[in-house]
Every structure is written in structure tokens, then in C-alpha cells.
Amino acid sequence: MKPTSARPSTRHLIIAVPWFWLALFFLLPFLFVLKISLSEPTLAQPPYMDLIREIEDGFVTLVINFSNYQLLLEDSLYLSALWGSLKVAAISTLFCLLIGYPMAYAIARSPLHWRLPLLMLIILPFWTSFLIRIYAWIGILKANGLLNNLLMGLGLIDSPLAIMHTPLAVYIGVVYNYLPFVVLPLYATLIRLDLTLLEAAADLGCRPWKQFLLITLPLSMPGVIAGAMLVFIPVMGEFVIPDLLGGPDTLMLGKLMWTEFFSNKDWPLASSLAALLLVVLILPFVLLRHFERRSEEGNP
Amino acid sequence: MKQRLPLLITILLFGYAFLYIPIASLIVYSFNESRLVTVWSGFSTQWYSKLLENEQLLGAAWLSVQIAALTATLAVVLGTLAALALVRFRRFLGRGSLEVMVTAPLVMPDVIIGLSLLLLFVAMEGLIGWPAGRGMTTIVIAHTTFAMAYVAVVVQSRLAHMDLSLEEAALDLGARPLKVFFTITLPIIAPALIAGWLLAFTLSLDDLVVASFVSGPGATTLPMVVYSSVRLGVSPEINALATIIVALVTLAVLIAGFVLWRQEKQNRLDAH
């Protein structure tokens, strides 16, 4: 089908069907988040007041309530949750890059017939259940878990290390689950790297480490940023990992939103938290789009 | 480059050990006799038979499989249409918004997708009476919305690298565009459609957060059951379930890999 070959009606249908689906079920819902975040909670089903209310017959009034946002700014709980999310997302993104970059590099430099199986092995854990991969870490990290048993058996420690329900457990869980998301884009940029540049540098007497810092690393930056954002953005809203591996002091936006919604049944406050999260994520998302487009353009 | 080979191999060994040791520990301890998951007390398959007697879990698993199959099928249709629009039509009204709407669900935190869709469903029910209540239908709609984005990405890359001359030849010989699509384009992008279907199926089967928001009282999916049992503590039955899932996934990946490999080989033979 050349661009011109499809009949206009078919063409319109191909565009309109996915466009309207996503507009209705992906874009429009954000307007409802905004709307409910401006309403008051109430004991009813659904548990929020309408913005437009009839006061006397025929008279309607619009009640906009900013108190949820006011609470987000005034109660330190919410700002520390925002800070906690930023911290966990940033640190685990850094560790994903520190572990993922050498792996992607090693796969990209491996013999041709090894690359596909090695990549498959990176993706394979991603196909097994996310919940179960986190569950596996509970068995390893808990007080009488595998790691503590091993270290105590070797005589390296006397009493179990407290790793479960600490920030460290959350970092381990996040890095473990999000590692494929940095390895794949990094591999894609590293495999396209023009090796003759490195040969030229070596011929001119450039040391391997300098070659890496001056050529490989700068040229793989689009992959680094894309991979970093693929981790950073979803981790900002992560709920399952801090809930199962973290402790009560692990404050993160996604977990707090879940509690406000499911335990406190405060839909308006949960909505304002979602709105806050969305605003924070706009900049990382723009970065991701920019660098993904750049790496697409580099694609022959 | 050669003197760095041992370093590269060491990096890979450590990396893969990090990825696979947790999964291996699940499998080993699923055959443990003791209820204490991390104390080995002898080989047993009792947790597998316990698992098969757990009717709540089996019911949830069946519901999840139905939801995942429906989701995957819908997501392949919608995702392929989106990919066709983005790859084949260079300029159209709404292209920019379609691009953003196809990329954003890939990274959007699932708590936001879940909450926003729930609010939409509640508002729609109030306005037009549909969807009446929440359950399987609302979960399928929610899962399709994020899964179609993944399908679109997979199909897009296949379409972008496809040789257009076959389609052009068929059109020049007078075949109708729709016929060209079904007899030429579709078979060529079929591997991407299968990969997309499997990916959407797994994403749906795996989702806890979105489903928790948009589900109703009657619809409890497998991840919800697993989540509540994990919250209560580590249980050997979950190890047995994990082992079954890992075995099925490995089998599926091996079959897919074998089929792709045979197809590539056939293509290479045909080319000569």
C-alpha cells in the first residue's frame, strides 16, 4: 500500500479507529482526574461531590475546591512522598545504567551468533510475572531468607542483616525488574556504532579508556537517556515494589495514592496526587520523545 | 579489543547470575517439603497438588487467561491499525497526537492509568449507563489501551523495514488494495503480529495495579489472588505457581525462537 493506494475511506478508518480509542480511553480520562481532584470527598457512591450542583430549582452553581492541592502543599507527608519517589527513581535509574551499560556493551561486542540468544536471555525474565519476580526477592532478602542463611553459614555475619523492608530492598527490586528496559535501547545504539571511528582513534594512539570516554560514550548518549527515562518515569509511580519490599517509612507517590484510594476512599485526594505525578513526569517524557526520535532518525 | 574479552565475559556472567538466581531459587524451593520456604527439608511435589486443589486460584487464573486472550486480540487489531497509520501515511490530521498517545502508555505509571480509567468508567456509567458496573469488560478495555501501544511499537518496526516492491508489483498487476493487504502485507508482518499478541497477552496476565482499580466485586484476577497471598507471607504454593509460569514461558519462547529460526533459514534458501 503506497501512501496513495488506499482509498480515502479506508485511510480514514485506519487512522480514526486507533485515534478515537486512545483519545477516549487514554486522553479523556486525564480530564476526569483533573475534575475529581477539584471536587470534595463525600460519603456516597461514587465518593465525590459533583462540580456542578443544583442549589434551587433551575439554578446551578459551579463549586471548585482547591483544598486537595492546598493539602498536598501544606502537609509534609505528600512532599516527602514526592521527594521519596524522585530519590528512588533517580538512584535506581543510575544503578540500572551502571549494570545495564556494561551488559549491553558486552552483548554488542560478542560474536554475531551469540547476540540473539544473549538478548533473549535478557528479555526472558521480563516475560515471567512481575509480581513473582518481586516475590522471589522476599525469599532471598528476608531475615531468615537465602542471603542471610548463606552469609551466616559462611560465618561472615553473626546476626541476620535487616534488608527486607528497607530502602535497599526497594532499590534491589527496582533495578532487578527494570534492567531489561535499559539494556535493550543501549544495545540498539551500541550495535550501530561505527567501529572504524574506534580503529582510527587507536591508530592515532588513543588509549582504550580514552576511546570509550571520547567516542563510545558520547555516541551512545541517545540510548542512555532513552533507557534512563524508560526506568525513571514508571518507577516514579511504582506501587508494588515499595509496598512488598519497602517498609512503612518508604514514602512514594504511587503507594500513597493507592492508600488514599483503597484504604481512605478519598478519590479526590488520590486524583490530585495523580495530577501532581503527571505534571512532574511531563519533562522526563518530553526528553524520552526527543531522544527516541533522534535514535530513530539515526536508523538507516 | 581482544585483551578485554575476559572482562566482558565476567560482566555477562555476573549480570545473568543477578537475573536468574532469584528465579532459580523459586524453582528449587517449589519442590521443598517444608512450609518454611527457605529451609530445605526434602524433595516433595505436594505444593503442586495443593495448587491444583486451590479453587479460588484456579478460577482467578481462568478469568485472567480469558481477559488476556481478549485483550491480546483487540490490542493486535488496534495496535496494527495505529502502526499502519504512523508508518504508511506520512501526513494526516492528528498524527502528532496519535504518536504521543501511542508512546505515552509505554511509560505511564499504572496507578495513573488505573485511577483515570476508573474515573472515566464511573462518569460514563452515570451519563449513558455503560459500562454497567465493573468487571471483565472494563478490565479488557483498560488492558487493551496500554497493550495496543506495545503492539504498535513491535508492528511499526516490522512495517518500517518491509520491502515495498512486492506490494507495488501486485498493485501494478491490478490487485485491489485490500487484497494486497491480506495476501501480501499481512503474511509479511505476521511474525510481528504474533510477537505483539504474545506480548499483549503477557502484559494483561501480569497486571495487578490497573485491574485492581477498574475491577468490580465479581472479577478477581490471578495477580490479585497472588498479591493478597504474598502480602500474608511467603507460601510454597506461590513457588509452585511461579515454576509453572516459568516453564510455560520458557517453552513458548523456545518454540517461537525455533519457528523464527526455521523461517529465517527458509527465507535465506529462497533468496538463493
Automatic annotation (TrEMBL), chain A:
Keywords: Cell membrane, Membrane, Transmembrane, Transmembrane helix, Transport. The keyword tRNA-binding does not apply. It is a multi-pass membrane protein. Its main location: membrane. Residues 82-288 form the ABC transmembrane type-1 domain. Signal peptide: none annotated. The chain crosses the membrane at residues 12-34, 81-104, 116-138, 168-191, 212-235, 267-288. The keyword Transport applies. InterPro entries: MetI-like, MetI-like_sf. It is found in: Cell membrane. It comes from the Bacteria. Belongs to the binding-protein-dependent transport system permease family. CysTW subfamily. PANTHER family: INNER MEMBRANE ABC TRANSPORTER PERMEASE PROTEIN YDCU-RELATED-RELATED (PTHR42929), PUTRESCINE TRANSPORT SYSTEM PERMEASE PROTEIN POTH (PTHR42929:SF3). This is ABC transporter permease subunit. It comes from Marinobacterium alkalitolerans. The lineage of its organism: Bacteria, Pseudomonadati, Pseudomonadota, Gammaproteobacteria, Oceanospirillales.
Automatic annotation (TrEMBL), chain B:
Residues 61-256 form the ABC transmembrane type-1 domain. The keyword Cell membrane applies. It is a multi-pass membrane protein. The chain crosses the membrane at residues 7-31, 60-86, 98-124, 136-159, 180-200, 238-261. It comes from the Bacteria. Belongs to the binding-protein-dependent transport system permease family. CysTW subfamily. This is ABC transporter permease subunit. It comes from Marinobacterium alkalitolerans.
